[in-house]
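haha ok so turns out i had the wrong file open the whole time. this is the CORRECT one, sorry everyone. sequence first:
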Amino acid sequence: MVLQESSVELQSLWQDQPVVFFFLRRFGCQVCRWMAAEVSKLEADLRSSGVALVGVGPEEFGLKEFTEGGFLKGSIYVDEQKKSYKDLGFKRYTALSVVPAALGKKVRDAASKANAEGIKGNFSGDLLQSGGMLIVSKGGEKVLLHFIQDSPGDHVPLEDISKALDISSEAKAGQMPVCNDSVCTR
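then structure:
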């Protein structure tokens, strides 16, 4: 994992190779950490196909713990101004809209999976930013996938990432638990 500390234009990253950009809500977000670990299951296949995996976070808060945890097997950048988040249409929740979104079934399911894999998180930092994914072809000629989270638990399945890049992968997605109001099972 490489932490980038200098200012970089996103477009410079896809000049020589296709890129999978994973935009995290927060580095401390338990669900984001699980999603980073999930997408990292593709890293070897991406690398062998000449595709870069890049994580982008909206603030440095929680970055050290995130990198030490090894959640993402790719380069990591921070967009403190959140310019790329705004340009890509990643919404910001309001104080009122974040609570039902964070308590929704998709988030509970992903958090349960993260717990099952021993992935913890915290509630520090900007709780209102959403994230998503952008996959861009080499040279930036084509956007292969542009995904915007509607709920904090929304994510792109591994097979959709592979399909967008037209690569094969043996990576297996983590089994999402089945949850009801009182219990989650596999």
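The chain is about 35% helix and 15% strand.
again sry for the mixup
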